[in-house]
């Protein structure tokens, strides 16, 4: 049985697409056949982050409308085995995704894949609702900042009331908190909410903390998910996150200010 | 407390302000979510009635419906009157 994981947040620009790319790639690296589905209709960007923008022929909406089949539409990742991307459509028609259509595509994907990662658009409109409706698990991407935390809580409300699992009275969606763009220096100065603060307010299990990192921009510039940059802090933090998603206990890293050694202080780095 | 700590703490710690504000608003919105849809309108109606007699600010009223066991729910109405309006 395929597991459907939605990457969601409510607030825009907090790191959903960055995280979807990293999580999908990480699961594939761990040997699980994985597809990342871009639900951001009209604002396709997952293709750029994954570096496959020039290989898009058909898209999600084409498949729903029967204009192409999945085999023609799925893009096989060139770097990572077991990994596929289903690009969003660039149509301006907000209602291009129907629940029946999405269900049909997800059911077909479920026959073939271990994990289906749904990269949600921002907001709480139909696109975001469609992305979370069929989920078994949710990664709630949150920045340590008031509006992001509040919106995450609203999304938690949606997950527990507006999803298929809620409507059919099944076991609830498993919720994971992924704190991104974390800056330990600012937390230490009392300028930024700490991991503990956000955990206490949202009261869900913490699956990862991704530091604010230059590596993320470098990765998106070159169209490589940051998790492949194994020397970077963000890449390692995402690798830890994957292990936790798969049920391993891993200590959290990058939570404290790195004390620079004598050499580093002189020569930088 | 060292002198350094003194200067540090005299600067306002905005993270703790953020945390307090979030705890209040999130608790409020969660209650709202779990209550019936008519609750916000009920709250506005009650506010209007009270304002016929006493002018209170909108954030000084809270209405919530709390489940007590299987059989009953209790409608809780919390209104704070400003000191000079009693
Ligand atoms: N850990 C990080 N460190 C630094 N920058 C980051 C980090 N995570 C994300 N960003 C940057 O934040 C911006 C938004 O990221 P991303 O596109 O993943 O967010 P999103 O939630 O998918 O946005 P949208 O809501 O528009 O879909 C990008 O410029 C990205 O490079
Ligand atoms: Mg996005």
Automatic annotation (TrEMBL), chain B:
Report the protein's function: Prevents the cell division inhibition by proteins MinC and MinD at internal division sites while permitting inhibition at polar sites. This ensures cell division at the proper site by restricting the formation of a division septum at the midpoint of the long axis of the cell.
User: What InterPro entries does the database record attribute to this sequence?
Assistant: MinE, MinE_sf
Keyword terms of this UniProt record? Cell cycle, Cell division
Q: What family does the Swiss-Prot or TrEMBL record give for this protein?
A: Belongs to the MinE family.
Q: Which organism is the protein's source?
A: Arsukibacterium indicum
The protein's name is: Cell division topological specificity factor
Query: Per its UniProt entry, which superkingdom is the organism in?
Result: Bacteria
- This protein's gene is called minE
Q: What Pfam family is a match for this entry?
A: MinE
Q: Name one GO biological process term.
A: cell division
């Amino acid at each position: 049985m395929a597991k459907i994981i939605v990457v969601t947040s409510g607030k825009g620009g907090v790191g959903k697409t960055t995280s979807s790319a990293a999580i999908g790639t990480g699961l594939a690296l761990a040997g699980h056949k994985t597809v990342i589905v871009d639900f951001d209709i009209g604002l396709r960007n997952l293709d750029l982050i994954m570096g496959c923008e020039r290989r898009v022929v058909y898209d999600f909406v084409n498949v729903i409308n029967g204009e192409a089949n999945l085999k023609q539409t799925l893009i096989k990742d060139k770097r990572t085995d077991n990994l596929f991307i289903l690009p969003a459509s660039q149509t301006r028609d907000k209602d291009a995704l129907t629940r029946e259509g999405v269900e049909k595509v997800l059911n077909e994907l479920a026959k073939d894949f271990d994990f289906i990662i749904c990269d949600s658009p921002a907001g709480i409109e139909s696109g975001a609702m469609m992305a979370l409706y069929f989920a078994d698990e949710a990664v709630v991407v949150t920045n340590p900042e008031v509006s992001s935390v509040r919106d995450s809580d609203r999304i938690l409300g949606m997950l527990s009331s507006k999803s298929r699992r809620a409507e059919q009275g099944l076991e609830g969606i498993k919720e994971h908190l992924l704190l991104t763009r974390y800056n330990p220096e600012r937390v230490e100065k009392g300028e930024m909410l700490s991991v503990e603060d956000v955990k206490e307010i949202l009261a869900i299990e913490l699956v990862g903390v991704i530091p604010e990192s230059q590596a993320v921009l470098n990765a998106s510039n070159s169209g490589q998910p940051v998790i492949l940059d194994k020397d970077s802090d963000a890449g390692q933090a995402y690798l830890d996150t994957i292990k936790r998603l798969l049920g391993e206990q891993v200590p959290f890293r990058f939570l404290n200010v790195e004390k620079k050694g004598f050499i580093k202080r002189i020569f930088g780095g | 407390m060292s002198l350094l700590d003194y200067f540090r703490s005299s600067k306002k710690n905005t993270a703790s302000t953020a945390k307090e504000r979030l705890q209040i608003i999130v608790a409020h919105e969660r209650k709202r979510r779990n209550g019936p849809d008519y609750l916000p309108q009920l709250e506005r109606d009650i506010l209007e009635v009270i304002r016929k007699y006493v002018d209170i600010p909108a954030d000084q009223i809270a209405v919530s419906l709390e489940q007590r066991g299987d059989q009953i729910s209790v409608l809780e109405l919390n209104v704070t009157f400003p000191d000079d309006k009693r």
